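Session log. Operator J.P. requested a structure for one protein chain; no other inputs attached. Running the standard single-chain path with token output.
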Amino acid sequence: MNPTAVECIVFEAAGLLPDAWRSFSAQGPVRCFNPGLLRDGGGWILAYRVVGPDGLRRIALCRLDPAFRVVAGSALPLTDRVRFRRGAAYPEVATKWFADPRLYRLGGRVFVYWNS
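Structure written below.
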């Protein structure tokens, strides 16, 4: 590989959408951007912001193969699975606005954090 060469990889939003979110893709534009990337075995884990036509910010995860291609069927709707502690008071924005995911590994476990 030429160290001065720059390669740009562009993902199609349709390939990044989890099945649970495909329904809103027919209602308007879907944008996927601002990813976090973490090496995992021979491939990668990609976390990214998804903004649908409703304007909500969501976070999805998928696996990439060693050549940075999306592994079919690997996209997961992370923020659909986030649960907040009952009885705790959170600002509404914290429970509905998920952005800028970052991945890290600690003690063999993978963690995701984000902005609200």
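Operator note: The radius of gyration is 15 Å.
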